[in-house]
Design a protein that fits this description.
- With about 70 residues, the chain is an alpha+beta fold.
- A three-stranded antiparallel beta sheet has the order 1-2-3, covered by helices on one side.
- This is HicB-like antitoxin of toxin-antitoxin system domain-containing protein.
Length: about 70
Amino acid sequence: MNHDFDVIVEKDSAGYFIASVPALPGCHTQAKSLDELMERIREAIELCLEVQGETPEPLTFIGIQRISVAA
C-alpha cells in the first residue's frame, strides 16, 4: 500500500538541501542535490514508518506563510 507525504524542502547557507516531513516528527535529511535529497527522504520516511509500526493519520497541506518580525 502506498502512502503520500508532504515534504518541505529548504536550502541552507552552505548550499545543502534539507527535507522534512511534518506528518512524521523527526523525519528529515539533507543532501547536496535535489535528486539525492528525494532518494534520502524516501529512505527516511520508510525508516520512520518501520520504527513507528503504523502509518500516522494524514495531515492536509494548507500552505506556507512568511511572517516578518523585528528582532
